């Protein structure tokens, strides 16, 4: 049995990742994905799959009961800089929705968005013939437009019946 709890280890991982980026000028490889999975599971009541079956990272509990959920994470270091992309979306694999965990430069989660499979596939198909579609690539901004904000720092989980617009004013 470990001396550390998983939450304590994740806190240390955040500190290490932030320090590494400040010292090296680039992110520590793989860390944002691990933190994103941990936070999504904890904050949205998901059960992480171990080992991962391919296509999804977690299975929903509660209001997402039985849903196969892919988790993507992105640390946003400069909000003024556009063009941030999320990891490759593999549409041929099994999953019901994707959650995107957005983290600040200290690798602390500040927002989580969720998009349903049909909306993602429709959006990728709009780019018919583009190399982005073939690669399953999507920008953070585009993902936010087709998704729903499901969690926000300081407020917690956003309820289904709350009115929320993620469209720019």
Describe this structure in words.
The structure is a single chain. With 169 residues, the protein is an alpha+beta fold. Helix content is 33%, strand content 21%. It is built from five helices and seven strands, in the order H-H-E-E-E-E-E-H-H-H-E-E. It has a seven-stranded mixed beta sheet with strand order 1-2-3-4-5-6-7, sandwiched between helices. A hairpin with a 3-residue loop joins strand 6 (148-152) and strand 7. Helix 1 runs antiparallel to helix 2. The radius of gyration is 16 Å and the shape is globular. It starts with 5 loop residues before the first helix and ends in a 12-residue tail after the last strand. The model has no long low-confidence stretch (mean pLDDT 88).
Low-confidence stretches: none
Per the principal axes of the C-alpha atoms, what is the gross shape?
Answer: globular
Strand order of the largest sheet: 1-2-3-4-5-6-7
Radius of gyration: 16 Å
Secondary-structure element series: HHEEEEEHHHEE
Average pLDDT, all residues: 88
Number of helical elements? 5
* Strand residue content: 15-25%
Counting helices, strands and paired strands, the structural category is alpha+beta
In percent, how helical is the residue content?
A: 25-40%
Quick one: biggest sheet? 7 strands, mixed
**Tally of strands:** 7
Q: First CA to last CA: what distance?
A: 51 Å
């Amino acid at each position: 049995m470990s001396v550390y709890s998983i939450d304590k280890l994740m806190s240390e991982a955040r500190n290490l990742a932030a320090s590494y980026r400040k010292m090296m000028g680039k992110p520590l490889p793989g860390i944002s994905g691990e933190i994103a999975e941990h936070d999504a599971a904890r904050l949205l009541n998901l059960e992480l799959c171990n080992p991962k079956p391919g296509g999804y990272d977690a299975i929903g509990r509660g209001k997402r009961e039985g849903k196969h959920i892919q988790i993507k994470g992105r640390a946003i270091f400069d909000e003024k800089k556009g063009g941030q992309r999320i990891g490759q979306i593999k549409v041929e694999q099994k999953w019901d929705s994707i959650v995107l965990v957005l983290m600040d430069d200290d690798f602390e989660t500040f927002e989580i968005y969720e998009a349903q499979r049909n909306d993602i596939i429709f959006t990728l198909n709009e780019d018919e013939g583009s190399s982005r579609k073939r690669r399953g690539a999507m920008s953070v901004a585009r993902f936010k437009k087709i998704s729903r904000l499901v969690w926000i720092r300081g407020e917690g989980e956003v309820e289904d019946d709350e009115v929320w617009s993620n469209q720019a004013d």
